[in-house]
Please model this.
Amino acid sequence: MFPIRRVAALLFAAAALTACGNDSSTAPTVTPVLGASATALSSSAVKLTFNSKAGDTGYTIERAEGAAGAFGLVGTVAAPSTAGAVSYTDANLKVSTAYRYRIITVRGSSTSVASAEISVTTLAFGSAAAEIATDITANRTLYADTTYTLKGFIHVANGATLTIQPGTTIKGDFNTLGSSLMVLRGAKIQAVGTAEAPIVFTSSRLAGQRQAGDWGGLIIVGNAPINRSGSVEIEGSGTDGQAVVGGKNYQVLYSGGTTVTDNSGELKYVRVEFAGFAPSLNNELNTFTFAAVGSGTRLSYLNAVNGLDDSFEFFGGAADLSYAVAYEGEDDQFDMSEGFQGRLQFLISYKSTNIPIRTGAGSYASDLQGIENDGCNGSGCDLGFDTAPLTTPVVANFTLIGPASQTITGAGGGYGLMLRRGTGGYYVNGVLARYPAAGISVRDVATYARAGSTAIPDLAAADLAVKNVFIAETPNAFQAATATQNVFDLAGNGITHSAATTAASLFTTLPATGAVPSGASAFDFTPAAGSAIATGGLATFTGKLATKAGTAVTGTSYLGAAAPGGVKWWQGWTNYVRN
Amino acid sequence: MTRPLRSLIACACVAVVAAPLALSAQVRHGRIVGRVIDASTGLGLSDVGVQVVGTTLGTSSGVDGRFAIAKIDAGTVTIHLRRIGFTPKTITGLMLDPGQALEQNVALEAATLRLTAQVVTAASERGTVSEALDRQRNSNGVVSAVTAEQIQKSPDGNAAQAVQRVSGVTVQDGKYVFVRGLGERYTTSSLNGTRMPSPEPEKRVVPLDLFPAGLLQSITTTKTFTPDQPGDFSGAQVDIKTREFPAARTYSAQFGSGYAAGATGRALSLAQGVGGERLALVGSKRALPQLLREVGNFQGLNLSHGDKNLLVSQFRNAWSPQAATGAPNVSGSFAVGGDDPILFGHRLGYLFSGTLSQSVDVKNDQVRALADRGTVKGSTNEIDRFTGETTAQSVLWGGLANLSTMAGRHSRLFLNAIYNRSADNSTRIERGSFENEGIEARIQRMQYVERAVRSTQLGAEHAVGESHAFDWVLSDAQVRRSEPDRSEFVQQVERDTPTSPEAFRWLSTGNGGAVRTFSQLDESSREARANYQFTFGPAGAQHRLKAGGLLRQTDRDADTRAFSISAPGATNEVRELRPEQIFDGRFATSQSRVFDIAPLSQGGSYGARDRLAAAYLMGEWTATERLKLVGGARAEWDRLDVDAVSTLGSPIATAKRWNDILPSLAVTLTLPRDQQLRLSASRTLARPEYRELSPIKSRDVLNGDDVQGNDQLERTRVVNLDVRWEWYPHASEVLSLAVFHKTFDQPIERVYRAAGSGTRTVFYTNARRAENLGVELEARKSLAFIADAFSSLQVFTNVTVMQSRIELPSNTQASATNLKRRMVGQAPYVLNSGLTWVSQSGAASATVLFNQVGDRIDAAGDAPLPDVIERTRRVLDLSLRVPISGALSARFDAKNLLDAPYRTTQGTVTRESYRVGRVVQAGLSWRP
Model:
């Protein structure tokens, strides 16, 4: 028996070595459907769509009425033999009624927990709904009597013009991740609303359930220059590859533009709400993205509400903007970079809290600022921070209200005006309030050099100047001077810093720090009677500021976005909800 | 038991540690085993008559030239070998001890080359067999080898360290092999001839540090293509051969311990373990919590604060390292092998070997930084500089079982099984600043990486008559890379007033402040291959026809998930707590509204299926005594599918079908005075790695970049030209000079694509073309020519000097600084030198080894930044072997004596720099 024992031992040893690699794995569990969507087909029917998973047997559909109704079984649907799209139509519903649905996956004798709830409201009598699921490659008009839902990454391409009637509502589909509208180079958008009938882009979710990042946002790509060489793509684009497929998130480049006066159309009285989904990590879309948009494009009366990334971001280009309101954006309220040349006047931002983010859509910024302007950053900045054209906007009559707490702005945030990486520009007649870090940061030597490396920049020569700004309820006027950071002279630049002056005392009506605003009536940005900002403006522009401002921006005797006793231009078309 | 079965057991080359051990039963007799080779080709010769002179004992050599004669009376023995067409040879002076199995390999020369019979002594015949050089000399192509004997004399602990002694080889990160300056993608790795699957998620490479030196017989680097090799060979094929069994029962054991300056005995911050890490057998405590697995990428879910708290509380509350003292390095190994009649009296060759090593490594003076663009074009400014230290506790263990037996006189069956496992449990603590946020920060990262390789091969060699040979192998291999539960915790360093003390506060906003990552990759590969060889023509000038085929299927499954925990709105009181306090549950009650959690690695998982079929036909034609031609072609059919799901949930499948015909021709000219001239031309290819073909964008959480593949990628076709002159003045001496040139059509390059806000994405693109031209010099010389006193000294060196040029298309979307430059990874030169002293008996030896690699491009520059350069580093190692008494001998190794820093630079910025410290180790070997 001796040899047999030896053989057995040898074989056992060999088998043991061979078997070592087979580590155990965890048993699968039945998981609920993810990413189901619901669409109101009419005043009485709703269609649910979702994707099945291999191995599923079927699905149980449950429905509840209103925000608080109890769920009950409405039907079942079998899983297709190969994994794919499943739809279920629920009819005989009440008109203009909100319903919630949920789906339970059945796999043999096992069932999953219920899926996330999907909300939908049946249509009103006489109204229509339409989906936009493929790219718009020919001229098209969207009508005010129809509610449109963007499903996917919808590009206006091929030189088409998209015209949107006043009062039209366009929803970004919550369930088609990242749904957005991108107006590509050569195409145009004509979205001209009125104060009474603004054009609204918003989340497809029910009011009260909406969150920052519910959908993508509005992106316009023009043909004006930027200061980065090489190929540069829209942040967050291209997650579906480079091949151009309608409705998919293909790569969109905005570099290489040549026409400063390029025209991408007009946006007027347009509100964009709950945007900012991140198609890939840290690449949140902005509420309004203007990439290489030329000066022929007209932008006025725009309202960004509860966006996850920046409210208004300009990547190069030369578009002018007047009358803009950024409300509760989760990163910078206004962001200009890459050689932006536009002129901005009458800007309001109000930031007081962290609006809840859609789960999985992205995260709060760690450096939220009022205005964050960069000279040049990233590849293709051939001369680093000195790469031409320098970012030199004119930013006039701004009223920027911060959250007064660095726990909201993040560790690197909390500045009203963050000027970095060699940016230039003229920042005049503004009000900064409730910034927890400082009013202004001149972050690096290259940026200070734009001002002529002097504490009182000379408008005749300097590419950077901050003039006639009132800083209230903010601990420091400037981020402290160090080897790389510099400060401007206060008096010599007409800058007033009064930490003791409250923001509320400057304006006619303003919610207290941390208070939940009651609605539009809680905001009146007109200087309060006797307010320090009613006067002290730079009324006459000179030197390079005057040249740059041209006729687009003129001086004012007051500071901030509203003239004492003037038109309350923000009223009637802006929104101040939180969900 | 029949006599042939008993007597014709095959045997391989003697394993390194082999020493004969007396078998107790048969005290009067001994055994002689060995292998007969054709002196001109190095191939085994079958049907050679082997006779013990003065006895009736004899046999004829079997498959692969192996023979064994048993029951020979102990004493001084002479054997005689003869075969038609070859000059007979008599070996005298074989000293056979009772119970001993003596190994004697013999080379026969063709009768046309030498007419008179030869009589040589056993000692001198043995001296002609210098395995590495023989392999080099007799192969059809350009081959370099490191053998167990050489590894034994070096301080090298694993295959990656050993292979860098080969000419033209550079080793990156202590793991990845670059041959002739071509990137990893141009080098394939195999184990006993079978392709190894890759455990790396973003690459298709085999980290060679997974193979302990104690299990190795040889590492062969083949640099020219012949049709019987895989077609995606373009730079080199590295074949790791595991040890085979010795002729007689052998036991050996080794133990060693080392002192690492900078690690051993120092107070260090070491990673926490939760059981099993010390043996690379991690437990379930590091597994991805089931709840997080189920919520997937969170899309479509509405999580309440209670849900988020529940998810956050699922993670192990471990974020900080522990203070501990660095333990000394230890290693041990054992082997038992032999060739005994244990299979019902049938002889079975066997080798079982196991090895284990543990070490603590410290990267001292660690600096990393990024380069930003300066205001003069191409100039650089340093940003995001962090300094700190990385400590790692590493373990590597493995074992192999090799079995082999003869089935009949003409067939040899073998089964090889190998299993290796390694783990690195590391901690990195660093402090610096972030330019973008304008803050100072302290980062602590704990990372645990486990790798395992398992391979089983079953095969046989059959000889049918003198002219037909057939062999086949079935193999199954599996690799796994598992990185369970990596943690990162970032604190902001703040001062409330310029004079107040520093406060360390959690960076609780953004998505990088507290991150847990779970990553696993499994790749399995099954392969079947068979070769048939027909030999004809006169002995010594034989021709061969060879045909064969291969079927291989490779499947890969990569899964990476990462989660970021933040606390928007957390107060300084919360942020100042230690991480273990923050996450101890006090903020995770159902009422708490502190935490937020988000998934990070959306789209980081993919699967790949690769099906390859190949067939070849090649011929070796001995035109004259001096001229040999080898030519043929290989056809390969590849079906490659990569499936992934994009961030947004849509499945994206990439399918590639590539059919190729790869011709090759090699000419070997035998020149007078032991010189050879080789010329070779061939076409080969390089296919994209799996991840590179998937067009989804994902965060490479292991390296921190966004990565996107390209489904438009084409395979690279390579034309190789090689010329090599070799001179073998004496046994174990060589001088050779080689020139090589490669032209790449559509080589694949890793580039950056730029996006708004200064962000970027790693992307892959086909460059237009590339060229690589180089010269290799190899010399190995005994110093006996100076004086007899120096006869035990041997000096060797190999130098490769090369240059390459790659051209990117001008319409590329890559943000490349240089459209024309050197290929990434290519060093302008690689130098290896050494001096070895071996005592007369061979028992004591001393070796000095020197290695230097020129500046090479680590990553291409992102416009207009210059390329990232890994700087030249000089390495000097010393190694000493001394017999103590009897079976016991001692070894002393000193590694990294110069302690030159690793350093990569970009312009004026040091991107990364650290020192690993000197290591001194001593050990004992016992070989009875």
